[in-house]
Protein 1
Amino acid sequence: MDERVIQQLIDEAKKVRERAYAPYSNFKVGAALLSNSGKIYTGCNVENASYGAAICAERSAAVHAVAMGEHSFKAMAVVTASSKPGTPCGICRQFLSEFGLDLKLFLANLEGEVVKTTLAEYFPAPFSPDSLD
Ligand code: THU
């Protein structure tokens, strides 16, 4: 993928990370999802006083995109302020897998460290629509 597009995706994830609502963990996460139609949909983590009701940034971005009519995605950037870039949690891996394992992942921290991987690498055996047959 074009380096400028990757950087744009990371920048969008960084920007939306600032809007994260994380008063309980103080761990803010931003995600930016690039659709195959070329649009970027962002999301941040939103926590809740009932802790288990929180939603992660990755699912927030995917829900945003689906609400805008998108089902086909190329790449996602995720930005955290951790010393090593964060990795999507198991629920988010399963959630994203619904739309294809070929999703490219760019996991970045604020120091500019970027891990380039794919959902397939992180989540090779999802419960998929085929599993329902
Ligand atoms: N979080 C995400 O937004 N994405 C992940 O993949 C892992 C965790 C959020 C959930 C919670 O609001 C905070 O980070 C600490 O776990």
Protein 2
Amino acid sequence: MKQMLNIALPKGRLGEKVYRMFEEAGFECPAIREKNRKLVFENEEAGVRYFWVKPVDVAIYVERGAADIGVVGKDILMETEPDVYELLDLKTGRCRMAVAAPAGFRDSKGSTLRVATKFSNIARSHYASKDRDIDIIHLNGSIELAPILGLSDVIVDIVETGNTLRANKLDVVEYFAPISARLIGNKSSFKFLHEEIEAVMEGLVPLIESGKAEKEAK
Ligand code: PRP
């Protein structure tokens, strides 16, 4: 019997975009388009079982083998450093990691810099590389509020269109890491389901190279 490949997709816009790439690569699962609250969908014939996972949790499923492969943002990989293989850059879901602050902000360097972020590890290593003392204020969302309310001096966050920063009168101080969606694989699945995983990768590569999936999403 053919082995099913378990695939964790990030719930939301990125996951839908990425599912379309899998579909076009020949790993469709029509049930996924039904409007309901189900989280698991499979197509036995194509040998795939998809499940929708909260984006920050995808790497946990893959690292522990509950999923064989999955799709996750490079930001989350940088932040959590899971023990998985990074198999492909899907070149979609592109954004940049940035430091942002209220217009006119100057780092006085005399005092500890207060940094609000949901990417505490990334922020810590970024400022460690500059030898700058910081105080991390870990938040779980709406990061842009922190400097507005005086909770922090700057934020470290992802910027895609820049709309959220503009709407909150914040300027980019520096961009320091390009981000995009990555296909990741569980290490033992990569050994035992090598052919199945290779087949998915072979289906995805031409789509990534043509840039078609990304253009269609715009
Ligand atoms: C992310 C990020 C920024 C925004 C950037 O937030 O934290 O707030 O998107 O996108 P933009 O440059 O296109 O405006 P998300 O939507 O994940 O919500 P959150 O505030 O709950 O983290």
